[in-house]
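Review form for a predicted model. The reviewer records the input and the model, then writes brief findings.
Reviewer: anonymous (R2)
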Amino acid sequence: MIKCLNIFLLTVVVVSLLLIVALELNLYKQVTVKKNVILMISDGFGPASQVLARNYLQFAKKQSDLILPLDTILVGSSRTKSSSSFITDSAAGATAFSCGLKV
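Model under review:
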């Protein structure tokens, strides 16, 4: 729990510094503070599922250069395993991923 709090505080400090730099460089005319953050963690949707969906779209549209809408917003992924197995419970994996702490 302490590690999650430390990661959260570090994130707040970094975002605050970035906003200060942006204001100093006049990159933003008006800064609005966001009240919420939405963290979406999919379950059971890995790279193979994304490739299958992309290939099907390209086949159906008969165009080999099409991309999925997800391709433009996907930031990253994670590989999880439990301490005693290569397969982890999805709730435990999502919790560890979201707070950055694996027990």
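Findings: The chain has a mean pLDDT of 75.
Further findings: Residues 2-24 form the longest helix (23 residues).
Recommendation: see findings above.
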